[in-house]
């Protein structure tokens, strides 16, 4: 009898203290990543915002909190031009990276469907442009656009009897040269995302459209594009953020010149901090860039499929 | 069997030991025995290290590094390298120095040295040099390395200067004045050449090289307190004269419009070697570079002279160069850093890389500098002018680069471009 009571009590204690399961405590799983993100992303961003409310420079360790840098931004007569150049650079880059990325992805997808040889090689070749660091890409494109007698593009133009173009020395052309270089570099990323989107479109949709007698163009318009819509939107936002933050390619290609013809906001921020040692004003520009990126990110989050939609 | 195994083991041990003994004392990023107990970190340009990209200079440097390693068997020097973005590298270095994380010893660009001295991150090295050696320095060099307390904070071992290169088959006589250069370059352009090339893109070289034309008239960028004065009074007039001179070179076709995007001296080398340029304003070190790329016959046609001035008597040239400074406060490391200054850079490195000696006695005695070319340069150094070592200089340079780009691309008139640059610099100065 006593033995039976003891066993029952032990069973009760076991029931009262349920077994600790790590899967029921997600914070422990998430903590290392959270700490890493806080240290490498959130902390620097907070520091940038903090410095933007100071008069800090790299030349003087002492600083005080002030709104002077934001007031200086309002007085900055170059800001309008910088914003316009940045808008041109981002808008043109995004539009053409999307279009070219889509074209290449469609061609690759068609190639795979038809078992054409060499599709993988083409994919690797295109991807290589994305792997090349921005500074290296800038130097390569500088050689291509060079207006010296040995410049690649102008040599081609001369060979076909056309006059040379002032790719980098005319301000109204230089910005488009920077855009071309950036399109070359960024198209591969769009291609990869869109190709992934194309692959998952159910073949049955195309088969049904074919049965209905839809032409290739109508299949593209009524099947491919609607199915790709979420990926297209996400791609647009991602490459907009990437392009907004691009400065290394321009730094190597034109340095922002002639004059300020190719100086985008991110390069301006870099120049302020690392050339003029002006930490506070550079941080203000970085905050402006951060704000624009946050708006893009907000749209990105809204467009991401919800869990119950997947 | 057992005996042969022991013999093999012994042989391996002996050979291994010999291998360790024969371990290279000089590698691309280390000088000294890797097992040496003391380490000195030294950040520098690849060209001033065992990682020099020129095979010729690398070979000439090797015995110097070897001798240094053998003379200091308890030390190994570990190299860190600057990228080509010297301005950005120095900004990061200053931040590191403030946080106490700078390398022990660093090659500092001469015009940035004042920023480091003013921030108190360098160690004085006066006691390591004889007064005779200090007095032997060219005056602008001595001034550049001396702090307000009279201490020397670095050793400026090599200087450079800007000169005018010309192809004598196209431009037989050296132009002495702006007008003569305009006429000679226009004639060369009519003959199908690029008349004259110079830096005009967004980088330091553009402002620095062009400032020779401003300085030659007696212009000053800042006053004694470091306040910008280049946009007012006579200085404004000198600026406009120099700016209009460059504007007219491009407008007339004497200089190609592509100068608005030239942001490296390498472009001049390429054009000279390709035979497309008649002349250019470049650095004295480029002579050896174009010699490497040209046939002896072609190179014989190229001569150098002083940068033309507004009149033959008004000449100036920008002088830069590199210093070595001690950042560590460890006395042993400071001593080792000074050993580098003295045993590698003060003389031997001048011989290898061709940077001009900063001491009269070395200029007179080092074999490399005894030929006609360097004798010419020694005369030009009389008109040498260093950039002011003041905190506002980087912004002045930045605005001058923007001004030059706008004028050379013909998007702004010189007067408007100068006014914008002047206002922007004053706005920046007011925030300092």
TrEMBL record, chain A:
<protein>
    <submittedName>
        <fullName>ABC transporter permease</fullName>
    </submittedName>
</protein>
<feature type="transmembrane region" description="Helical">
    <location>
        <begin position="279"/>
        <end position="301"/>
    </location>
</feature>
<keyword id="KW-1133">Transmembrane helix</keyword>
<dbReference type="Pfam" id="PF00528">
    <property type="entry name" value="BPD_transp_1"/>
</dbReference>
<comment type="similarity">
    <text>Belongs to the binding-protein-dependent transport system permease family.</text>
</comment>
<feature type="transmembrane region" description="Helical">
    <location>
        <begin position="82"/>
        <end position="108"/>
    </location>
</feature>
<feature type="domain" description="ABC transmembrane type-1">
    <location>
        <begin position="83"/>
        <end position="300"/>
    </location>
</feature>
<feature type="transmembrane region" description="Helical">
    <location>
        <begin position="120"/>
        <end position="144"/>
    </location>
</feature>
<keyword id="KW-0812">Transmembrane</keyword>
<dbReference type="InterPro" id="IPR000515">
    <property type="entry name" value="MetI-like"/>
</dbReference>
<dbReference type="InterPro" id="IPR035906">
    <property type="entry name" value="MetI-like_sf"/>
</dbReference>
<keyword id="KW-1003">Cell membrane</keyword>
<keyword id="KW-0813">Transport</keyword>
<keyword id="KW-0472">Membrane</keyword>
<feature type="transmembrane region" description="Helical">
    <location>
        <begin position="26"/>
        <end position="46"/>
    </location>
</feature>
<feature type="transmembrane region" description="Helical">
    <location>
        <begin position="173"/>
        <end position="196"/>
    </location>
</feature>
<feature type="transmembrane region" description="Helical">
    <location>
        <begin position="232"/>
        <end position="259"/>
    </location>
</feature>
TrEMBL record, chain B:
<protein>
    <submittedName>
        <fullName>Sugar ABC transporter substrate-binding protein</fullName>
    </submittedName>
</protein>
<feature type="signal peptide">
    <location>
        <begin position="1"/>
        <end position="22"/>
    </location>
</feature>
<dbReference type="InterPro" id="IPR006059">
    <property type="entry name" value="SBP"/>
</dbReference>
<dbReference type="InterPro" id="IPR050490">
    <property type="entry name" value="Bact_solute-bd_prot1"/>
</dbReference>
<dbReference type="Pfam" id="PF01547">
    <property type="entry name" value="SBP_bac_1"/>
</dbReference>
<comment type="similarity">
    <text>Belongs to the bacterial solute-binding protein 1 family.</text>
</comment>
<keyword id="KW-0574">Periplasm</keyword>
<feature type="compositionally biased region" description="Polar residues">
    <location>
        <begin position="41"/>
        <end position="57"/>
    </location>
</feature>
<feature type="region of interest" description="Disordered">
    <location>
        <begin position="36"/>
        <end position="58"/>
    </location>
</feature>
<keyword id="KW-0732">Signal</keyword>
């Amino acid at each position: 009898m006593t033995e039976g009571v003891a066993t029952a009590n032990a069973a009760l204690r076991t029931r009262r203290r349920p077994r600790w399961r790590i899967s029921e405590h997600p914070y422990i799983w998430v903590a290392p990543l959270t700490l890493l993100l806080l240290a490498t992303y959130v902390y620097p961003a907070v520091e940038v915002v903090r410095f933007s409310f100071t008069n800090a420079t790299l030349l003087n360790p002492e600083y005080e909190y002030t709104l002077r840098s934001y007031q200086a931004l309002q007085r900055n007569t170059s800001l309008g031009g910088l914003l316009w150049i940045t808008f041109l650079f981002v808008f043109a880059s995004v539009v053409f990276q999307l279009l070219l990325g889509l074209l290449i992805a469609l061609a690759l997808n068609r190639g795979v469907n038809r078992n054409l040889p060499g599709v993988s090689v083409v994919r690797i070749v295109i991807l290589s442009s994305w792997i090349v660091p921005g500074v290296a890409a800038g130097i390569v494109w500088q050689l291509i656009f060079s207006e010296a007698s040995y410049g690649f593009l102008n040599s081609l133009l001369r060979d076909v009897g056309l006059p040379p173009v002032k790719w980098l020395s005319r301000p109204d052309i230089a910005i488009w040269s920077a855009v071309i270089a950036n399109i070359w570099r960024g198209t591969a990323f769009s291609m990869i995302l869109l190709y992934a989107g194309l692959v998952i479109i159910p073949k049955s949709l195309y088969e049904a459209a074919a049965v209905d007698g839809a032409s290739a163009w109508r299949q593209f318009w009524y099947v491919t594009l609607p199915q790709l819509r979420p990926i297209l939107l996400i791609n647009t936002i991602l490459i907009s953020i990437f392009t907004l933050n691009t400065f290394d390619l321009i730094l190597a290609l034109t340095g922002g010149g002639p004059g300020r013809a190719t100086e985008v906001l991110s390069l301006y921020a870099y120049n302020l901090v690392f050339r003029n040692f002006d930490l506070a004003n550079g941080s203000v520009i970085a905050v402006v860039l951060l704000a624009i990126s946050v708006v893009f990110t907000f749209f990105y989050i809204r467009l991401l499929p919800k869990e119950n939609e997947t | 069997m057992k005996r042969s195994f022991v013999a093999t083991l012994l042989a391996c041990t002996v050979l291994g030991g010999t291998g360790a003994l024969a371990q290279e004392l000089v590698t691309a990023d280390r000088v000294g025995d890797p097992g040496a107990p003391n380490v000195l970190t030294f950040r520098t340009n690849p060209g001033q290290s065992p990682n020099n990209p020129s095979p010729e200079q690398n070979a000439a440097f090797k015995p110097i590094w070897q001798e240094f390693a053998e003379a200091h068997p308890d030390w190994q020097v570990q190299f860190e390298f600057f990228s080509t973005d010297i301005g950005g590298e120095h900004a990061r270095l200053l931040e590191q120095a403030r946080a106490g994380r700078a390398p022990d010893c660093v090659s500092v660009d001469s015009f940035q040295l004042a920023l480091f001295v003013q921030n108190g991150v360098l160690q004085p090295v006066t006691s390591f040099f004889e007064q005779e050696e200090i007095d032997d320095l060219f005056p602008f060099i001595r001034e550049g390395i001396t702090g307000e307390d009279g201490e020397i904070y670095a050793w400026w071992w090599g200087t450079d200067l800007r000169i005018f290169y010309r192809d004598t088959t196209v431009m037989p006589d050296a132009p002495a004045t702006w007008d003569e250069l305009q006429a000679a370059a226009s004639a060369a352009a009519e003959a199908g050449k690029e008349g004259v090339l110079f830096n005009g893109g967004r980088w330091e070289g553009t402002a620095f090289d062009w400032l020779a034309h401003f300085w030659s008239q007696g212009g000053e960028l800042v006053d004694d307190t470091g306040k910008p004065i280049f946009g007012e009074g006579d200085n404004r007039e000198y600026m406009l004269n120099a700016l209009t001179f460059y504007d007219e070179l491009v407008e007339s076709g004497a200089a190609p419009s592509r100068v608005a995007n030239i942001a490296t001296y390498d472009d001049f080398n390429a054009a000279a070697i390709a035979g497309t340029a008649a002349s250019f304003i470049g650095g004295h070190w480029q002579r050896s570079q174009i010699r490497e790329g040209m046939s002896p016959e072609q190179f014989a046609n190229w001569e150098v002279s002083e940068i033309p001035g507004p009149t033959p008597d008004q000449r100036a040239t920008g002088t830069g160069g590199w210093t070595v400074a001690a950042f560590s406060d460890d006395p042993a490391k400071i001593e080792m850093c000074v050993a580098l200054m003295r045993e590698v850079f003060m003389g031997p490195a001048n011989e290898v890389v061709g940077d001009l000696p900063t001491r009269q006695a070395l200029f007179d005695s080092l074999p490399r500098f005894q030929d006609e070319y360097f004798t010419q340069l020694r005369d030009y150094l009389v008109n040498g002018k260093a950039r002011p070592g003041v905190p506002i200089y980087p912004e002045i340079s930045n605005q001058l680069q923007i001004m030059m780009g706008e004028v050379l691309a013909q998007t702004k008139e010189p007067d408007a471009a100068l006014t914008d640059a002047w206002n922007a610099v004053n706005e920046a100065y007011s925030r300092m």
